[in-house]
Amino acid sequence: MDFPLVSVALAYDQNDPLDMAKVMPLVEVLPLFGTFYHVIEVLDKRDPTSWKATGPQQVLMRNATSTRHDYEGEGLMKKLAQFLMREAKLEGYRGIQIECLHDAVTHTWCHPPQPFKGELIAEVDMETYEEEAEDGKRVRVFAPAKQRGTKVFVTL
């Protein structure tokens, strides 16, 4: 590439999941990444049959998005998200799921353009979320983070 990379996104078909063996090096470097995904999955109270894919091109999993700090606030993430929604619909997908670790990302995916519908599925307040440690004491596992982590589903 001969241009500056300012925003990236990763998505994959739920019917063709990520190879967890290849994801494990990331989880080892960022152990709370895996913890977040586990917590948000436990908080998801939907019946899996109501949304999970039964074949290809049904549910798109949006796995990551990031904008370079000096380009934040320019609307790049929102434009990219809305582009992906339109393209996924054209390809026959019925929904997109994304886990979010930034309020702007949650807002964008919860408020998609018409005719799409965004729904906040689960959320965790990382400042106050606690788990029981091995010694029986309650521990704020994400401290000192003050971010809300969410799971959003967009019906296309």
UniProtKB/TrEMBL annotation:
<protein>
    <recommendedName>
        <fullName>N-acetyltransferase domain-containing protein</fullName>
    </recommendedName>
</protein>
